[in-house]
Design goal:
Shape: globular
Largest sheet: none
Order of helices and strands: HHHHHHHHHHHHHHHHHHHHHHHH
Distance between the termini: 62 Å
Number of helices: 24
Strand content: under 5%
Helix content: over 70%
Number of strands: 0
């Protein structure tokens, strides 16, 4: 199966297409504006597809399908949690982000606060999120290449890291955008076709599919509680992380800058939400289809934490040709997402840390592009190392942890910066650092690391004083981050931040050009 000529043909066809896109984009990428934001020339429709391509990661196609195949109904908590985060972005985040920032979310938080401390703290939080999310993508891609070519897992991860490096290093955001658009179109086509092929075995009736699953594995697969084994608090914590973490993921927020204005950014979010919602409905059918037509045991034996459910289902219902197509689509999915993640990490290191902290806002275009390319190499190497270290983890679960970190590290400071006059520099820095540190600490002390990665027996560590039973820390870390930010803002006062709040509100509501031209009293009346 791994040496199928058809499968390998699809794989190399996609590789050739994306390399052509990268070559075309590289010839047009000459400035930091083009490298990080495609020059703001992407249309809302294109950006909506690219957002869907950026967001529908290995966790969606492979991870959630694997969780549904293994656990049934509980896999839907990931789909619903991720989807609910998009209205938050649409109504609360995207317009202030587009009107105030330039490349990263730290532009917004630092707009009226101390530039250096806020950007440094924001870089720490952003890189923690990006690296965790990259782990999920690298693990899934490595498992897929291993299945497709029969290569050792470690070399598979190295191959993916090399391709990611080429896309970002030479093509920047323009190449990444078009790779994501192509990938999203292929993913939607593949997901819909795979779901339809599954339903042909059940008279095109999803209820018959669910009935067959309950007959084969018992009614438990249609009931909640089999995946979130730590109880209701873990389920609530996971939901909070997925919902608010979506609104604070750096690579998603960065796409607000690739269009010309806030109206185009809102339309992009609207298009992306519809595409993502439709796809997640397909994934639910794919997961149950793999459970019935392939078998949970067969998927588990394939390795990769259940991540191979969708490719194995494609082989069962469509043969080698369709298996090859789904593998190529899955590879496209992960490659596009890791390119987007890498680019957001590069923007953080180059724009926030180097340009605005090290160089105090004074750096030439040539210098910034050189730093960006060095940062690309560094992040790619880190992604390969972490991908090898976390072999065998379910990608949707690992992605969920990245969202938990994002909702605690990034979301509180972003929301308070755009809504609260009293928010101060020390509060922003403390909120980001406390959210990041507490999330990482609780993840390290939870079964996620202690049992799944380090291989300890749960019975041996449950009584330890340091042990945390929650697998997802958002329910603790996000409120803690908010409390620290609010408390420090109340006990400190920053005159400059207070004085510039009105100017920031004008810019958020009317855009930079209109706010600059509008008199103060007229702006108040319009608001």
């Amino acid at each position: 199966m791994g040496n199928s000529i058809i499968s390998i043909g699809f794989f190399f066809a996609f590789m050739a297409l994306t390399l052509l896109i990268t070559y075309w984009a590289a010839r047009r990428t000459r400035t930091t504006e083009h490298f990080f934001a495609a020059g703001g020339e992407v249309t809302p429709w294109q950006n909506g597809w690219a957002l869907a391509g950026d967001f529908l990661s290995a966790g969606a196609l492979l991870g959630i399908a694997g969780i549904v195949t293994s656990n049934g109904f509980d896999g839907m908590i990931y789909s619903i949690g991720w989807l609910v985060g998009w209205p938050i972005i649409l109504f609360l985040i995207v317009e202030p982000l587009r009107n105030v920032g330039r490349f990263t979310f730290a532009d917004v938080v630092a707009y009226r606060l101390g530039q250096r401390p806020v950007r440094l703290a924001g870089a720490i939080g952003t890189l923690a999120v990006i690296l965790f999310y990259l782990i999920a993508q690298m693990v899934a891609t490595g498992s897929l290449i291993k299945l497709l070519f029969g290569l050792p897992y470690n070399w598979s991860v190295v191959l993916v890291g090399s391709m990611m490096l080429i896309y970002v290093l030479f093509g920047g955001m323009l190449a990444t955008t078009w790779v994501q658009v192509v990938k999203a179109a292929l993913l939607m086509a593949g997901g819909v076709l795979l779901a339809l092929l599954v339903l042909t075995h059940f008279d095109m009736n999803p209820l018959k599919l669910f009935a067959a699953a309950s007959q084969k594995y018992g009614v438990r697969v249609l009931e909640p509680g089999s995946r979130v084994v730590s109880g209701q608090w873990d389920a609530i914590s996971l939901g909070l992380g997925l919902m608010f973490g979506t609104a604070a993921m750096p690579h998603i927020l960065m796409r607000a800058y690739t269009v010309k204005d806030s109206k185009a950014a809102r339309l992009s979010i609207l298009y992306a939400t519809g595409l993502i919602g439709v796809f997640h409905l397909m994934v639910f059918i794919i997961g149950f289809g793999a459970m019935v037509l392939v078998g949970s045991e067969t998927v588990a034996k394939a390795g990769g934490g259940g991540n191979m459910a969708a490719p194995l289902l494609a082989l069962a219902v469509g043969g080698n040709a369709f298996f090859g197509f789904i593998c190529a689509v899955a590879f496209a999915t992960m490659l596009a997402v890791v390119a987007g993640l890498t680019l957001s990490g590069v923007a953080t290191l180059c724009h926030d840390v180097w340009t605005n902290v090290v160089r105090n806002g004074i750096a030439s275009e040539t210098e910034q592009l050189k730093v960006a390319r060095v940062a690309t190499i560094v992040i790619s190497v880190l992604a390969v190392i972490l991908g090898i270290a976390f072999e065998g983890q379910n990608v949707a679960f690992m992605a969920g942890l990245a969202f938990s970190i994002a909702c605690a590290a990034n979301f509180p400071s972003l929301v308070l910066a755009i809504t609260w006059r009293r928010f101060t520099t020390s509060a922003a820095v403390a909120s980001i650092l406390v959210g990041t540190a507490s999330s990482l600490a609780l993840i390290c002390l939870s079964p996620t690391i202690q049992v799944d990665v380090l291989g300890k027996q749960l019975s041996q560590i449950e009584g330890a004083w340091w042990f945390v039973s929650l697998r997802n820390p958002a329910i603790i870390c996000m409120p803690l981050s908010f409390c620290v930010a609010i408390a420090l803002s109340l006990v400190t006062r920053e005159t400059n931040a207070d004085a510039t709040f009105e100017a920031m509100q004008d810019r958020m509501l009317f855009g930079p050009l209109q706010a600059a031209a509008m008199p103060r009293e007229e702006a108040k009346s319009a608001a």
